[in-house]
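Re: that chain you flagged

S.,

Sorry for the slow reply, it's been a week of failed gels. I finally had a moment to sit down with the sequence you sent. For the record, here it is as I used it:
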Amino acid sequence: MTGRWDFWIDRGGTFTDIVARRPDGALATRKVLSENPQRYRDAAVHGIRLFLGIDAGGTITEGLVGTVKMGTTVATNALLERKGEPTGLVTTRGFADALRIGYQARPDIFAREIILPTQLYKIVAEVDERLRADGSVQTPLDPASARTALKQLKDAGIDSVAIVFMHAYRNPAHEQAVVAIAREIGFAQISASHEVSPLMKLVGRGDTTSVDAYLSPILRRYVEQVAGELPTDARLMFMQSSGGLTDASLFQGRHAILSGPAGGVVGAATTTRAAGFERMIGFDMGGTSTDVCHYDGAYERSFETVVADARMRVPMMRVNTVAAGGGSICSFDGSRFRVGPESAGAVPGPACYRRGGPLTVTDCNVMLGKLVPAHFPAVFGPGGDEPLDAAVVQQKFAALAEEVATATGKRLTPAAIAEGFLRIAVENMANAIKQISVQRGYDVTGYVLSCFGGAGGQHACLVADALGMNQVHAHPMAGVLSALGIGLAETRSIRQCTVELALPDGWDGLNPALAALADEARAELTAQQIAADDITVHQRVHIKYAGSDTALEVPMAEAATLADAFAVAHKQLYGFVMDGTPLVAEAVSVEAVAGGGGTLQPIVGTRTEAAVVPIETVGAWPVFDRDRMLPGDNITGPAIIKEATATTVVEPGWSASVNTLGDLVLTRTTPRALAHAVGTDADPILLEVFNNLFMHIAEQMGHTLGKTAYSVNIKERLDFSCAVFDRHGNLVANAPHMPVHLGSMGESVRHMISKVGDTLRPGDVYMLNDPYNGGTHLPDVTVITPVFDDDDGTLLFFTASRGHHADIGGLTPGSMPPMSKHLEEEGVLIDCFHLLDQGTFRLEAMEALLTGARYPVRNLQQTVADLQAQVAANEKGVAELKHMVTQFTLPVVEAYMGHVQRNAEEQVRRVIDRLEDGQFHWPLDNGAAIKVSVTVDKARRQARVDFTGTSGQQPDNFNAPMPVTRAAVMYVFRTLVDEPIPMNEGCLAPIDITIPDGSMLAPDWPAAVVAGNVEVSQCVTDALYGALGVMAGAQGTMNNLTFGNATYQYYETICGGSAAGKHANGQGFAGTGPIHTNMTNSRLTDPEVLEFRYPVLVEHFAARTGSGGAGAFRGGDGAVRRLRFLEAMTVSILSNHRTVAPFGIAGGGDGAVGRTTIIRQDGTQQELAAADSTDVKPGDCVLVETPGGGGYGTVKVMRNDTI
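Prediction finished late last night. Pasting the structure tokens below so you have them in one place:
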């Protein structure tokens, strides 16, 4: 021992946890509120003073403290609250808006007012310079323009800069030169992307660099503040997101995001491994959120993570966070109970914290007697010395019980309401655990649940039951395990870089890159006074299939061993391997590791009494003191075990024993009930539970499809949807994927039922894409799986997935021919093809179908693989539905399939209650027009949507099959519901839809329809909003751009401006842009990846400033996208709003029309029509200017009526 105190600290959102190692080696713990400005400046230093017996503000003298190791949320909170350092972004000319646009997908597909994250940078400066994907110089850096741009930033008060140039990961010379200029000018913080995250993908690397510039100054000031209150002979270290410690002087913003949670992963893995458990699920439930992790002998890291809407490309512990903590707010919306995502935080905190806060999960445990105020830290009230307030909790639950009875007619006791909220919270947390385990191919039933965090022990048994787990581990310091993990952590340095080398030929190029990184990592550790002999270096390679963006990390080895290891990892994660597909080493990484705090265990004594006895009994719950429990003690639930930093609840059917290390091991002693004893009547608690469960099944299906798909279109652009249907083919729940798919898939299922329903057998799977029999357009192939009762073979439900296949045949690659006039020209027609016959994949018959058409599929392997992925996704849904039936019984599941639809129906009826009659006539560029009238019957709370007067069937492909229009109607009315409900069949129950036969919205076979799904659907949506008077026209097109030749084919949709409009309360809102709107939400390929894969240059991608319609609330701006071709190609555009402008509403101005222009190398220009195609030569450009959204309201006068 050093003879000094060591402190290990986790500064969380609600509490700061401190583990102190005394000079004699004994451990002590303490919790203090993270925010208590009336009493102290910083919680960590305050806790240190308390241990040392020093008054607030007193000096901590030298000789007392050895090492302080910290994890902190200072950076995370600054990121979440957008309170970082004012930052300037310096980037390549043409890319000022690249990070803001990102991948063009909107965060909430049902939100009419699209709110994008606030950007971290305040000002953008563009610099003249350009590199190509191979690192060669396209445009030399202009140092003078760079200096001018930087000086302008400095003059504007910016002192922190993020420098992000295209392809700087490949050649850092331009960034290095600008860094030198920035240093000369005197910027305090300079973050360059080639240093921060030397990996391909401009958006992720750019976001990471912006985060680093934005947070590092804040972090540096906090570090200096803490260091300034510590003695100069104390060493200060911080925990990094990657799970390793580093010296305070090296701690950077980009490494601080998961500082505390990473300590929890280390603590849980270390302590469970010491207790003999090899496989662990970490369950860290704090005040504001719950973090979960998976451990199976090695730490799992993610190299691409989204945190607080920032896309991070640095190594982080793979931690899944769900907004369900002790402080999650519990509310009732008139029909359902809700838990979170809002949190009461530390201030005001839960109702029991004596600050006037709302009811939370913590209050539920107080209400149920599981949290006993007398045994909880008394740190509340003005003096910080009062216990939890149980009386106010009882009063608030009693009042809520009256509110529920008034709204529903159901009288629930306050305790039943508290139990209901806990049930919802537990299901939310269990779903989060499934995402990091079950979805990644792990069976958690054989794992131990490591519970920690202040609230973990209160819910561990319930969460384990929800997952089918039978053991729970709780370390004696479970309440402060993240802090303990920070103390036990090793010092680590991770380095990585992009290599993009084909394997096995490029294997020789891996070692030089790894050696250079290893030297850097070792140097960082030796600079921290670590001997070179104490450092271990791990080398890893990130491998992917050629053409994919999904790389997996494997240990460096010989080329053949690398390939085998990758195949094993790919099979584990994705369920398949692609034999014969070339491998690419995308990146290499090195991790240098040294030191660590050792495995520390508390000293345990021997028992003198006959058995442990409760210190008191509260209601039905005997309360035990963990400090009095010794190895061999065993307690049978129900029971409460109180300790200084946590409370553990032993539920009925569980027991708790103490092992030889002093750990608690909770074990399921009686078999859990196979089915919950619940009724089939609608219950406000179970309504929310089943809402979440049905949606989670669809989300798990989507995850399975995304991870097992072959094509970039499905795997990376995420152009797919998954859903669950009842036995009649009615949509019950969907994952929030592609809106145009979701509302139309029910027609596909019902068509399949009508055609082959009587012959369906277990193991059967069907597929279809016929637009005249339940489909939309041919690239969208729907795969449908019936779900049968395992005992009597009764048909129960259906699962279905729809994927936009990269090619299904047709005139042009990508199956989106702009000039098609006959359905046959758009690809292979599929009508209820029997894909699996009682579990047997009918491969030969399917291949004959796909290759036997006049215009067959071009890549059979890709199409077959994507269909197999859809089958796998459906099977995931089948398994989860069967598990749900086992858990709740078939009558209950079927009843709640109806209840969630009726709940959606009631929500739509509430919308109808405030609507007025309206009509709208909306022309398209091709001369056709959509006419719609909405008639409201307020007495019956119904609406009629009538498209009579719409133009007849079109000779081109701007025809939308009836399911597309139905999907648009469902989507529009779902967006008028402000509550987070699934979009299901109930949304259309109060709506009568009339579509005239032979119109462009109900064409006759064999009319071409490819534009109906992507273009006409957008126009129908806008027309409906116009008729309802709630929103202007959005960009109204998907701007389908394709280019290719015999070697390369590429397809993308391009974002534009969203519409301005008004909310139900009459408050207006502005449009947003550029962003995807209405019926699509597909992703865009990162510009660096696009240039790496295809012979093109992205020269400009930015907002089309001023293109949004004028008004009191402006429409969103469209986009400007310019691509230069390096090879001869054919370019096609399928779009709308090139002549007809997106409409404004209530006096708002129209948005600007779009335009597609070919700019030849000699300067001549060719403007393309809305649907057009042309050939280009090397050096030619295509310039796509997408439409802006319409504005809402006149500038001077605003109506304030309600919709």
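What I noticed first: Residues 860-888 form the longest helix (29 residues).

Talk soon,
D.
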